[in-house]
Fold this sequence. Notes:
The protein is α+β, with helices and mostly antiparallel strands. The chain contains 6 helices and 12 strands. The protein has helices at 11-23, 37-45, 115-128, 174-181, 216-224, 256-271, and strands at 2-6, 26-30, 57-60, 63-66, 69-70, 131-140, 168-171, 189-195, 202-210, 232-233, 239-242, 245-252. Strands 6, 7, 8, 9, 10, 11 and 12 form a 7-stranded mixed sheet that branches. β1, α1 and β2 (26-30) form a beta-alpha-beta unit. α3 (115-128) crosses α4. The two termini are 13 Å apart.
Amino acid sequence: MVKVQVNRFDYIGSLVTRAAFKSGKVDVTINDTFIDLNTMIYMFHYDSTQGELKDTIKAENGKLVINGKPITGPAKWPSGSGQVTLKNAPMFVMGVNHEKYDKSLKIVSNASYTDNCLAPLDKVFHDNFGIVEGLVTTVYAVTATQKTVVGLSLKLWCDGQEAAQNIIPASIGAAKAVGKVIPELNRKLTGMSLHVSTTKVLVVDLICHLEKAAKYENIKKVVKQVDTHSSTFDAGAGIALNDHFVKLISLYDNEFGYSNRMMDLMVRMASKV
């Protein structure tokens, strides 16, 4: 059993904890001195996006207890530890470059939500057909930084529009970040995002110029053979202009899918210790 400590019980922290219990492979402990136990219980029980957690949750002896197991406790960081910047941390995506992890790496990144959908798709197509270049559009759910009512945005005017009634364009770093997990694709991809008024399930729209000719029916057969838990390929939505130019559509749960892949990566890392 892999021992993991969640040191910030925000929304993703709570979903990572959910994923840990679901996996049965991770022994998770929560350490967050800024959130009281009753708030944690409420966050676990009531989630209008991911649904209500059916497990038994309660506060007992100053700890959060899930299914009889205490999961809150003090941090046990090595002396001298401080704030860590992950900007330049090595990135790993399960199914893409996780086998390159080395135990000498002390701090790593699980990349972004979008990378965990886009990178597996890129890897399949580059390994089998070769990607010469590509454009990516992500259709993204509402984020916490968007406006609930019209307001001021000093960055871009359109960012000040309310999220529930608008389709708002935005930049993304995921397309460029793919080059960090698949070095052969560095500088071959770029893209943008459209924020729409949904709460989850995102779409990656990948347009590729392929090196090797491929019929779309053959492309579908290749993808079917690959594990796509965090990148669900919609075979019926894609189209091909010709055997070298295709549009591919894949969907993903940017929150819980990502949290589960984080569990998988931690289990993988622990196996190398």
